[in-house]
Structures are given as C-alpha cells and as structure tokens.
Write a structure and sequence with these properties.
The chain is an alpha/beta fold and 348 residues long. The chain has nine helices and 19 strands. The two termini are 28 Å apart.
Amino acid sequence: MIKSVLLVLLALTGFSAHASVILQYHHVSAHTPAITSVTPEQFQEQMEYLANNAFNVVPLSEIVLALKAKKTMPPKTVAITFDDGYQSIADVAHPILKKYHFPYTLFVSIEPIEKKYKNMMSWEQLVALSKEGAEIANHSWGHEHLIRRLADESKAQWLARIEANILKTEEKIQAGTGQNLKMLAYPYGEYNQDLESLMAKLGFVAFGQQSGAAGIYSQLEALPRFPVAGVYANLASLKVKLHSLNMPVLTQNDSNPELVNGHWRPLLTLTLDMSDIDKNQMMCFIQGQGAKKPVWTAPNVMNIRAELDLPPGRSRYNCTAPSKKTGNYYWFSQPWVRPNDDGSWKKE
C-alpha cells in the first residue's frame, strides 16, 4: 500500500527520528523451545536495563494513540508485549514487571485457553492480570493462519470468516475484562493487503512480527515489533534495537507480504527522506541469503531484491542505516510469506 501524501509532505518540513520500540515475547522460561523463549534470567536482565537507563515504558495503547494522531513519543519509549498467554508470563514475567511498575500487553487467542492447552494461562488468570493493569488484546480465536483460505472458499467468504473470527474474539475479551482495545497481533506474523484493509475497515490497529521501530512512517495495520527470543534474546544485540529509529519511508512500491504466481524474488522499492541518512551506509539483509547493498535509482529511491527464490513459508528483507546525527540505527523490515509451488502451504 502506498504511503499517504502526508508522509511525502514530511520530507519538505523535516521529520522526527523519535520512535517507539515494541518488544514481542512468547515464553519466559528455560524449559520451552528456545526459538520462542527467553530465560527468566535474560528477562530480568532486560527489564533491569530498561529501568536503569531511563526508558519510557508505556502501555501499548498509548503508543497506538500517538501513532493514530501522527505524533511522536518521547525518546526511548518502549512497549512490552506477549503473544499467546503462556503460563510463564503469569508465573515469571508478571512479578518482574510488577517490580519495575512496567505495563504490558497480552495478545491472546481464546480457543487454546478455553481448551486448556499445555502451558497456557486460564481465563481466570487473564482476567486477574487485567485487573492488575495488563492490557488484553486480540490474537484471533484459534491462533489461525489468517491468510489461508479453506478449500473452495471464495475471497468474500474468507474475509467474512476472518471478520467474524476477530469480532468474536474481541467480544469475548471485552466480556471478560471490560477492555476493547481493537489491537490485533497477526498469528505467526502473517498478513496480506486484504487483511490490512479489513483491519482498517474494522477500526483495528494490527501488529506483525517483522522487526523495526514504530513511528509516523509506519502502517497502522502492519506495525513492527522486535521479537525477543533465541538468538535475539542477547542483551547486547537488543540494546541496538532498543535505541532504533523509525525508517523514514515516504513511499513503497508494494507492501503486500503474500507472494503469488511464482514471483518468489520480490522487488522492494523504497522512497526515503534522506536528510539524516547516508545512502552508502544503508545495508539490507535477505533472510537466508545474507547481506546485500541496495541499488539506488535516484538519490532517495532504493531497490532490493533476493538473488535466489525465497523458500516456502515466512521470510523478510531487513534494511538498516545509522543516523548521521546520533549513530542509532534506522530499521525497516518487510515480511514475505510464500506458498508451495502447488498453492498449498508449508506445514508448521
């Protein structure tokens, strides 16, 4: 989706580099899969770092209000989010967050909780946490792959099914907690342009799992978060992300992550406000293919394309560049999701 004319006008009036960093966690445990976990010791270390370095830790809904108004938040603003509602959040993360008086958001799916899947909090626990200040937000009813249509399902039928799913989940959250935040975290970070349009229609702000800082250049229906788990749980690397800046993307050729018709090497074209960026220091990373310099077709227009087909499943292009003023990194990530050649989906 092309960015609004408002963002182009920002290039004429200057821009603020201030951004909000949204952290995404799943498990806080040493006994769950590392790819979706931080240990209790790592989580304590990270929260202590935020507290000791004067970070402005705020509810996610506060950042959303600022983004909707195209207002910048104070420097070093951070929101803490958890996907799925695992028991370790109540047992381990909540006491640490309470110690530092840090607000946080839980994105939950209803079915796994009601069916008492392993390691999930109960509905009663979620309601209790909400009464202590936790924000409870939408993660779909059954943690479905929302972009996937059922067999013989038309586009209209698919969109109607997803709309009913999201609204049913929101109604359940509101009935149990009194909260109706209209914030959705896409399960698996998967979305497409049709889902973005649906979220806009329903008045929802939505979040992916692509990395980057959120700010006035971000799309409200596909806001970035930094996943914190596994190899990305190291505090040294996390510090860089905590100080990251909102990449000043004025226009984008196509932000639709869903790849179709054999176009497995998508071209990404970005028009940027270059007032604080040296194009020679821009570097992109193609998941599974390593670092790659972008091609500049104009002083402020860059292209990046994979040299090999992206594999079935989820991939990303990440692009970063240091600020000429501060040395902190502008960060932008474009997610992609590709079906198999026969149109089926990779099994999770």
